[in-house]
Amino acid sequence: MNEQQQERIKKLGSIKALGFDPFGKKFPATTAIKAIKDNYEESKIVTTAGRILAIRSHGKAAFLDLKDWTGKIQVYIKKDKVGDKLFQLYEAFDLGDIVGVKGALAKSKTGEITVFADDFTMLSKSLLPLPEKWHGLKDVDLRYRQRYLDLIVNNEVLDVFIKRTKIINYIRNFMGSKGFVEVETPMMHPVPGGATARPFITHHNTLDMDLYLRIAPELYLKRLLVGGMERVYEINRNFRNEGIDTKHNPEFTMMEVYQAYGNYEDMMEITEQLFVNLAKETFGGALKFKYGEKEIDFAPPWPRQSYMELFQKHAGCAWEDTEKVLAKAKELGLDLKGKTAEAIANDVFEKVVEPNLEGPVFLIDYPTAICPLTKAKSDKPEICERFELFINGMEMANAFTELNDPLDQRKRFEEQLARKTEGSVKLDEDFITAMEYGMPPAGGLGIGIDRLVMILTNSLSIRDVILFPTLREK
Question: Which pTM does this prediction carry?
Answer without folding.
Answer: 0.92
